[in-house]
Structures are given as structure tokens and as C-alpha cells.
Amino acid sequence: MLSRLRSQKVQEIATAYLFLVPAIVILGTFVIGPVLYAIYLSFFDYDILSPETARFIGLGNYLEAFRDPVFKKAFTNVVIYAAGVVPTQMVIALILALMVTTGVRGQNFFRVAYFIPTVTSSVVVSIMFLYIYSKTGLLNHILGWFGIPPVSWMENARTALLSIMMMNVWSTVGQYMVLFTAGLNDIPDSYYEAAMVDGATYWQRLRYITLPLLRPTTLFVSIMSVIGTLQLFDQPYLMTNGQGGPADATMTVVLYVYKNAFGGYFRMGYASALATILFVVILALTYIQKRWFGEEVQY
Amino acid sequence: MEISSRSVRAVLYVLLIGYALITVGPFLLSVSTALTKTQHVHLLFKNWGLPPEPTLENFKYILKSGDFGRWVFNSVVVAGLGTLAKVFFNSLAGYALARIRFPGRELVFWAILATMMIPAAVILIPQYLILSKLGWLDSYYGLIVPFTVSAFGIFLMRQFFSTIPVELEEAAQIDGLSRFGIFWRVVLPLTKPALAAQIIFNFLGDWNNFLWPNLIARSREMYTLTVGLQTFKNEYYSFWNQVLAGSMFLTIPVIIIYLILNRWFIKGITITGMKG
Predict the structure, then answer these.
(1) ipTM value of the model?
(2) Which residue of A207, B30, B121, B202 sits 20 to 30 Å from the alpha carbon of A54, by its own alpha carbon?
(3) Tell me, what's the pLDDT at B238?
(4) Which residues pair with A55 in a beta bridge?
(5) Which residues form the signal peptide (chain A) (predicted)?
(6) Which residues of chain B lie closer than 8 angstroms to A108, CB-CB?
(7) Which of B252, B245, B254 is closest to B64 using CA atoms?
(8) DSSP state for residue A267 in the 8-state scheme
């Protein structure tokens, strides 16, 4: 009896691990192993074209990164980008969610319309916006009605990053709007009814009921959005032919990692160090998130 | 919060419709431009964005040019197989973590969760080096295999499996079904909403992916549609009507899937809080 129980137990364990084999093998080989490998590589001067010359240089890559003006520029760009895009897209998403949940007709139509940019490939979004931003494109045409002379939005170092920022607000607002809508629907109607009985105005209800109860959603969205913006790659790559130009105006951290590793320099060690720095920043932000809203966020 | 004042409602509709124009407008302009003859593109705005003599010649031209058909095929294969594998493997792993007690369960679960925090850029270089060691660069293996499991999918499936009553499984066990039999025939069919959300998000993520195929696909025959379209854009740079016609092949399937499965989408994004 006991040995039968034991063999059943062994069989259960074997089954469990059998079910987990694909997950363990794939995540181990292509995610967990690579993270450790990336950190290891970051201490080497490693050129993929001549691997035999690889040598250990300790913190050399990191010291170089902190002196590298292009890396500094890339980091600054990403911070400017996040500072501009995150609050803008959150405010628009929240306002849209508040408007859609007022019981207007065609709620479903608006949700679909607002969400379509989110499901569109970054390649298509980039092509459409290069067209809109071109010298004879829609944006300049509309500005022309107000007598504003045409600008080559993506070719001008002063407007290139702004152009990508506007485009990304456009393409991600829908996603956050849906999250805010879900958060708003979770607030019990009885709270509002009670407030109405007490004679609270719309703004008072918004200020004292909606916004406080929406806090978990808001913080979750803000962290998602910050982490997303730190990893910006596709759009600047696609819209500047992989250059991050003009004059590094749209260079981002990930694009610079990519350029160092695959864009002609083949400096795998240095690129790994840059990527590791990004990872540490993201870990720090995730930690701050945990500290800030602890158990409040459920997902 | 309900709003009853009529004038406020009117303002609401104006704003909502205005923003819908902003989100849908670029797509309408793209369709319209893709239907315009090259010599008419400069007249488009004068004609309120409508093509003076609508034509399908851009679409015909694109389909005939070079490897375009092959790129569409590659995208379907990569996104299709990747999604099938992911949904199956994630469900298997999620089931084991939700339902079987075994030593090391906590460790495996936390290791899988931890992989969700790793930015793609960090592991890009080692992944590339590993694939080049395996000889998988420029192959379907390289495009598909690294993405046959997703930590988030496992997490999602585990949550769903945990909500299914254990009694169902006990009954099946008494009837002599194996663990896999219970998983496949009893439990999995009950998680259709989770599976649907997973299929949609994974397919879209793979279909729209650019960074990875751009790195792995070296020869033109191995390009996916996203990579192909990007090179295509550079070649036909000033022929917006043709480039935009090409981009329709990437967009239209997605919009159709989205419109049909809208309900699952909203559910999925609400559950997952993220894209892809």
C-alpha cells in the first residue's frame, strides 16, 4: 500500500516536470541563460568578427558608457520622451475613458476606433506617419491652413523626437483607455448615488471618488508606460533607417545597443554593458513600483 | 457616472467623434492613397483626400513584385506556428503549476515570473550568439523556436486553471483518465476564454514583431512581412501609394481579426493589462 502510494507520488512529480519541459528548456535557453550571458559578456571586449581576440576588461565597458556622449544623448532622449509621452497619454486616455463611460451611445464603436492603432504593427504606423510628416504630407497641409510654413518633421533635429512622441501617444492611448475603462467600471455606482444625495457636483465626485479609487490602475498604467518608453526601438529605427538621426536626435538606448552590436560596430561586450545598465534601471523602477503600491495592484 | 445635461452630451459627442477621426484618419488616408495613381498623388488633398480615379493597380503591382507573396507566407507560418506552440506549451506548464504538487514548484514558478521583467534588448545579443551556434540564423527555427513559450501566458493559464473545481478532475481520475487526459479532455476545453485571449495576443504579437525577424532573417526569402515592407519602403521611398498599398497586407488581416474578436480583445487587455 505504502509503496503504491509512493510510486503514485513519483509518477505525479514526473508528470509535472514532463509538462514543464518545454517551458523550462525554452525559457532557460532563450531568456534566463541569455541574461546571465549578457552580464558575463559585458565584462569583455568582444568583437563578433574576431572572437579569438576577446579579452576580459572588467568594468571597462561600463566606464566607457558613462563617458560616451552618444549614450548620454540616447539616455537623455529617452527621459525627455518618457517625460513628454507618459503624462500626455495618461491624461488623454483617462479623459476618453471618463467620456466613454458616461452612458453615451456607440460606446463600442468608440472603443474599436480608439483601439485600432494599438493593434497595428509598428512598421505600418511608422510608414503612415512618415507619409503624414513628409514635406507635402497631411500635417503640413493642415498647418498650411493657418499659414504655417511646411517643415520636414523627421529630417529636422528639432522636431524629429517630438514627431515620434506625438506618433506614440497616438498609437498607445487606446490601450490605456481600455484599462482605465475597466478600472472605472469597477467603482460601485452606490458611491456616486450617495454623493449625489449629498449634493456633490461632478467635479467633486471626480476628485473625491473616481480619482482615489482609480489609483491602482493609474499607477499600474504609469509604470507600464514608463518601462515601455525606456525600451523604445522600433519607431526611431524604422523612421530614421536605423540611424537614430538626424544628429542623434532620435537615438534611444535600445537603438544604440542594437547599433553597437549589429549595426556595423559588432561590439558585443560594449553593447551588453549598455543593455545591462538599462536592465538595472528597469529593475530599480520595478522595485519602486512595488514599494509604492505593494499589494494594491492586482493583475 | 451618468451625465444627463443635453448640451454637455452634445459636447461629449463632438469630442469623442473628433478623437475617433484622429485615430482612424491615418488609416482612411492610407487606403485612399493606396487607391490613387502615381501621377495623381499630389492632387489628393485638393480632392478632400479622395483619389481622382481610384485604381487597384498599386495592389496588383505589389503582389507581383519580387518576394512579396513569400513574405506574406512567412508571416503566416511564423505567427501561426509560434502561436500554436505557445498556447499549447503555456497551457501545459500553467496546468502543472496550478494543479500538481511537486517539489520545486515554487522555485519554477518564481523563475518563470522573473523572466517577465527582462527587457528584450538585454537578451538580444546572447540569443543571437546562441542561434548562430545552433546554425539557426536565417531559418524558420530561428524565427519561431525562441518564442514558443511565454512567461506571461503561463501565468495567465495558471490563474485560469486555479478557478476550475478540483471535483471535476477527481471524477475524471476515477474514470481512469491519465493526467494528460484530464488536462486535454476535461480542463482545457473549460478555459476557452483564456485560450482565445492568448491566441489573439500571441498571434498579433508575432505577426507585428519587427525587431527579432529583422535580426534573424538575412535573405530576402526569409523576411517576414514587417521586415520586407521596411526594405520595400526604402526602395520605393517616394511612391507612397505603392508603399501604403503594401502596408495594407499587414494591417487588413489584423483589423478583420480584431473586429471579429473585439470582445475577447477587450477582455484580454483588461486581464493582461498589456499588449503582446
Answers:
(1) 0.90
(2) B121
(3) 74
(4) A45
(5) none
(6) 262
(7) B245
(8) B
Choose among A19, A33, A112: nearest Cβ to B259: A112
pTM: 0.90
Concatenated DSSP letters of B121-134: HHHHHHHHHHHHHH
What the block records as the C-alpha cell of B218 is: 538575412
Give bridge partners of residue B138 from the DSSP assignment. Answer: none
**A62: three-class secondary structure by DSSP:** helix
Q: Are B207 and A121 in contact (CB under 8 A)?
A: yes
Phi-psi region of A206 (alpha: psi -120 to 50; beta: other; left: phi over 0): alpha
* Cα–chain center distance at A268: 24
Q: Do A261 and B128 touch (CB under 8 A)?
A: yes
- Evaluate whether B151 touches B115 at the Cβ level (below 8 Å): yes
Per-residue pLDDT at B274: 43
A:B CB pairs within 8 Å: 262
pLDDT score, position B272: 56
Handedness of CA B100, B106, B108, B113 (dihedral sign): positive
Q: Is B20 in the A-facing interface, judged by CB distances under 8 Å?
A: yes
A132 vs A178: CA distance, rounded Å: 26
> Which residues in chain A show pLDDT less than 70?
1-2, 290, 293-299
Chain A contact present for B174, CB below 8 A? no
Of B2, B19, B100, the CB nearest to A96: B19
Low-confidence ranges of chain B (pLDDT < 50): 274-276
Which residue is listed with cell 495558471? B158
Q: What are phi and psi of A255, to 5 degrees?
A: -60, -40
What residues are paired with A267 via a beta bridge?
A: A47
Task: Tell me the pLDDT tens digit for each residue of B180-234.
Answer: 999 999 999 988 888 888 888 899 999 999 999 999 999 999 999 999 999 888 7
Burial of B261 (0-12, 13-18, 19+ CB in 10 A): middle
Beta bridge partners of B251: none
A47, β-bridge pairs: A267
Q: Yes or no: say if B200 and B268 are a contact pair by the CB < 8 Å rule.
A: yes
Q: Measuring CA to CA, which residue among B229, B33, B31 is closest to residue A137?
A: B33
- The interface residues of chain A toward chain B in range 38-77, judged by CB-CB distance below 8 A, are 38, 41, 48
Beta-bridged to residue A44, according to DSSP, are A56
Amino acid at B204: L
d(CA A155, CA A153): 6
Q: d(Cα A299, Cα A295) in Å, to the nearest integer? A: 10
Compute the distance between CA of residue B28 and CA of residue B49 in angstroms, rounded to an integer.
9
Residue B22's contacts (CB-CB under 8 Å, 6 or more residues apart) are A170
